[in-house]
Amino acid sequence: MAPSWLKKHSLKSRDDQRTKAAELTLRQSIYPIVLVTILFFLWGFSYGLLDTLNKHFQNVLDITRARSSGLQAAYFGAYPLASLGHANWILRHYGYKATFIWGLCLYGIGSLVAWPCILYRSFGGFCAAIFIIGNGLGSLETAANPYITVCGPPKYSEIRINFSQAFNGIGTVVAPVIGSFVIFNHVGNDQRALENVQWIYLAIACFVFLLAVVFYFSPIPEITDADMAFQAEETHANAAVKPFRKQYRLFHAAFAQFCYTGAQVGIAGFFINYVKDADSSYSDATAAQLLAGAQGGFALGRFVGTFLMKFIRPRWVFLIYLGLCIVFIAPSIGVPGNAGIAMLFVTLFFESICFPTIVALGMRGLGKYSKRGSGFIVGAVCGGAVVPPILGAASDSRDDTKFGMIVPLCFFVAAYSYAICVNFVPAYRNPADAFTQTKVGIENVGASEEGSPNGEGGVLGEKGLGDGETRHAEVKDDGKM
């Protein structure tokens, strides 16, 4: 017999069972949202550190821009394996908490593997470590993005995910700042710089393993397919009655995510190279600090976008932001010096809300397909593995990173097709608007404002169900793709 405390923290959940978690109020959703938001900071930090190490490996190992992009290829190439494979299987069979813990453990293991690879200057070995870390972060994103979207009143989904993702932006600011001091400030002493990077990854490993323990013992509500089917029905935006293979809005959102993420990763990954090509007087440390400043603009853009979404429909904010990414990346191709760098700064500001808003809009009305659908949208992050090598090859062909910026411009334009559809095509627009008008989680649809997420009167406890018994919803997967 398992101890009672282990049974209390069981990671197994039934997807055909309503838990009332889809009706969480703002107050009830605060704790789980805060806990999951920590994860957004973690992969923002990891991603920002990767952009800094990209340039460092070019210097230390004397490799080309195209080869150094192997870091991004290993990192983002792991995402489909996680989001469509092991992480999505765990999410669908065990739930969100189990997926969070799995992702954190992989992240920690990858960080430990990175240690000897950095010590022996093995670029291939470090790419393998980054691939393990990418699997961990891909697992976290597979669960965290949809969880933030559905944890709380659906009316505020885009606001919640953009607010949480803003802490991802803060992580991308902190990492280049640290990198500029612990890596590039040791000019001529590469061994000292690499030793400092080792300690960073050891600290990451210790922290994420500790966080995995915190998640295990935390009473966060589990949101099932039955909960999501209920939410879609209540908002009258239920498109899940169609077979999964006919969820065209989802697949278009995944395509947009592929193109957008590829462009974003390419720009950030070669930002330091761009600064050096635009003005050779800048040192690597200064260029890394400029990257931190640009990522600060990225984080600020998310807070500003989140604020605007309180007054303007999120789909309109998305249309404007992504459109301005195209407007400002285009002149960076030909404008020299600080003016070109300024164009990239503004581009990063407007990139800010695009990724999380595509996730939120793409999941509208998926109902019982929400977990499977999230795997496709997060898996599309593999665009970050495809675009940077193309950008690197284009830059190497002219020995000019400014010319390479034509690559993210093309991918931004392709992603913009989704922004147009979600604003002007009724089949896309109506489900998005239905969710922003719903009162689920705001008015009393069954969840008590006084309840807590777990415990007496809570959304997971039997007393929180109102009738003292667990209610069930018929959620059958037709097995069709």
* Overall mean pLDDT: 78
Assign a percent range to the helix content. over 70%
Largest sheet: none
The N- and C-terminal alpha carbons lie at a distance of 40 Å
Fraction of residues in β-strands = under 5%
In the CATH hierarchy, what is the class? Mainly Alpha
- What is the gyration radius calculated from CA atoms? 22 Å
Low-pLDDT sequence parts = 445-481
Class based on secondary structure composition and strand pairing: mainly alpha
CATH superfamily: MFS general substrate transporter like domains
Q: What is the CATH fold-level name?
A: Growth Hormone, Chain: A
Characterize the structure shown:
- It is found in: Cell inner membrane.
- By secondary structure, the chain is mostly helical.
- It is built from 20 helices and no strands.
- Residues 445-481 have low confidence and may be disordered.
Give me a quick take on this structure:
The protein has 481 residues and is mainly alpha-helical. The chain is built from 20 helices and no strands. The chain has one domain: MFS general substrate transporter like domains (Growth Hormone, Chain: A).
